[in-house]
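Structure ticket #2291
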Amino acid sequence: MKFDTAIIGGGLSGLVAGIRLVRQNQKCVIISSGQSALHFFSGSFDLLNFLPDGSAAVKNPTKEIRNLIQQAPEHPYSKIGAEKFIDLAKKSEDFLTDINIKFQGSAKINHFRITPLGFFKPTWLTLSDFVVSENENKPSWNSVSIFNIEGFLDFQPEFVAESFNKMGIRTEIHDINLPELNRIRRNPSEFRSVNLTVVLDKPEIQNTLAQIFKEKSKNSEVIIFPACLGFESNEILPKLSEKIGKPVYLLPTLPPSLVGIRTQKHLQDYFKKSGGELMLGDNVMSGEFEDSRLTRIYTQNHGDIPIVADNFILAGGSFFSQGLIADIDHVYEPIFNLDVEFSPEREKWYNPNFFETQNYQKFGVKTDGDFKALKRNQPVENLYVSGAILSGFNPIKEGCGGGVSLLSALSVSEKILNIEETK
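Resolution: structure written out below.
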């Protein structure tokens, strides 16, 4: 099997790179085990919330990028460069718009998303269904009705209400019960957002919800509901808001993330409809190198049938997706044995204080300035790396995980396309 580009990993970064390439008429394949970190997606993409030194929250990522480069020269954003960072952030926004992912936000100024516990967190882009605020102290409304499904434990409206009440927002909580949910309620393991949406997305249930919401929220400006609506269509929530006559917003729930699964499915479908080939449920096991190039890879499902490509992208994720493996004394990349940045002293991998910076989160595959993978300190000319597997950044403490995935995917895609244009 011969392709222009083969991508290892079907999470956010791999899918974005794949879509970017197939839209430019590349023959492209994505090999993915199936699940990715998108299944824990909060509904927001972070670009840069804090500088590496832990100083005050970043308000304008495009203005702070030069400070980040000074503080962290090996950060993926530093390899991209300040001007290109600004350019790729805008291109990321345009990209999501082009593929019909609706969002709110801009790289010019962070807004605030509201967490499942009612806290305000800075972020870059938030899907349009979710509740956000331009002000970290208080949203633009003064009264809210929070609805939950009776017995649904992945959403705790009391925490949200307590936070809102401290801001001076009048808050009402309503539990609702629908007989159509009784079947899945019998099994607590099935009473999750991805199961609820099968029932709640039905047109007749939408009409029932609209009646309940309208009747019980007469004294409120907005309605908040857990993110268990709209798996099949992003038009369900706008239509529901129109029926009620006031906005309905979602708040994320505990994983699995319905909106994350929906986003991944949307990206997968777009990739396939654009001409890409998606090998789900497969794993890349090894590769063959000639001189400084990767020539072919072998997967678990295809045995000794190689996948040959001009270029490869490794976007397999970090520890969560087993793109990186840690044993008792070292961290390694399991497919190609690429160079990995990690501390040789295990006691320095983590901090006993859970809420402090954890050094292992910066571990990852080493690359040159073009995101070409390093193997024995030498770049592999046609093997690029993107997303969470990259070294040099802390996605949690810096609040940059989504941004690194998006910007590095577009960056390596552009490099591949530029190479093809010059041939």
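Closing remark: Residues 111 and 134 are 5 Å apart (CA to CA).
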